[in-house]
Amino acid sequence: MAGPYPEVQGGGSLILAWQVRNRRVLVVGGGDVAAGRILNLLNADALLTIIAPLPLHPEIQYRLTTHASRVAHIPRKFEPSDLDDPSIAMVLTAVDDPEASTRIYTLCKEKRIPVNVADVPPECDFYFGSTHRDGPLQIMVSTNGNGPKLASLVRKQIARSLPPNIGDAIAKVGQLRKKLRRIAPTQQEGPKRMQWMSKVCETWSFQELCDMTDEDMEALLGFYGPNAVPSLQQLRYGEQPDTFGYDGSFGWSCVI
Ligand SMILES: C[C@@]1(CC(=O)O)C2=NC(=C\c3[nH]c(c(CCC(=O)O)c3CC(=O)O)Cc3[nH]c(c(CC(=O)O)c3CCC(=O)O)/C=C3\N/C(=C\2)[C@@H](CCC(=O)O)[C@]3(C)CC(=O)O)/[C@H]1CCC(=O)O
Ligand SMILES: NC(=O)c1ccc[n+]([C@@H]2O[C@H](COP(=O)([O-])OP(=O)(O)OC[C@H]3O[C@@H](n4cnc5c(N)ncnc54)[C@H](O)[C@@H]3O)[C@@H](O)[C@H]2O)c1
Fold this sequence. Notes:
Enzyme class: oxidoreductase
Keywords: NAD, Oxidoreductase, Porphyrin biosynthesis
Order of helices and strands: EHEHEEHEEEHHHHHH
Bound molecules: ligand PQ2, nicotinamide-adenine-dinucleotide
Helix content: 25-40%
Catalytic activity: precorrin-2 + NAD(+) = sirohydrochlorin + NADH + 2 H(+)
Protein name: precorrin-2 dehydrogenase
Number of strands: 7
EC number: 1.3.1.76
């Protein structure tokens, strides 16, 4: 019988947004797949060491010039001592040599470094997925090893169904949340802050969020104190919004 809590569906992955900003990631290989991994890593502001003999894929060569301060290249095959640097947070291999891959994987496990060996699921601590990016929005589709091509098709279908301005809307919400934290910084205010932010997101359309100017933002923040959320119309044309009472719980109740 179904209980009151969400059903556990084992066999999945733990989907996370791993923060590798300014952390060192070792990429072994300099071909097509490595080029894709390097783009993912630079999108996450990582520091990269690429180990691969010349010639490199032209895209990698290009990244070496455009991101010289973030990307180092060692032009030779992998050596076990490459893993001696204690600052290495993660290893990604994309080499056309399965024995070398397995050796690297085993060494990483000895050193407890998380590793992905492209296309070898048993040698992956984590899988890559098919990703869509629009500013601060990232969507990853995983089929948990069942069908990478299908992951790519599902991702494209999801991307087509999104509002075109969703990335901008999220960026605006990010700015608003930052400003709100400045005027309401304390931990005690957390529940009120979260409730108010949720109400803004529910009340305003994505387009309205995108259209919000700095002046609109300042004016909107003026309604945080009385715990009200005007529409963009009300904000710009001075009409009075409804206020909603805050009863101390995480939810909210309307007082009309
Ligand atoms: C999503 C994506 C991300 C990325 O890697 O960037 C990704 N593979 C992509 C493409 C792709 N890979 C393959 C094809 C050929 C068609 C086909 O075989 O279906 C295509 C299609 C194409 O190229 O369009 C071949 C393949 N891949 C794996 C195996 C081994 C196996 O299954 O045993 C084989 C068979 C090799 C063989 O048969 O010899 C394994 C993995 N590939 C994964 C990720 C992980 C699981 C993700 C998931 O299940 O969701 C996992 C487990 C490990 C990992 O590498 O992390 C990227 C799409 C990016 C995009 O377009 O958006
Ligand atoms: N996930 C995916 O989307 C996907 C797609 C195609 C292939 N693959 C797999 O990924 C792997 C790499 O594919 P690719 O298309 O990038 O291959 P590739 O042939 O383009 O590149 C391989 C690279 O590895 C380098 N290399 C080989 N041995 C090395 C070693 N010991 N140390 C350092 N570098 C070494 C080569 O110099 C070359 O730069 C293959 O095993 C392939 O099966 C994955």
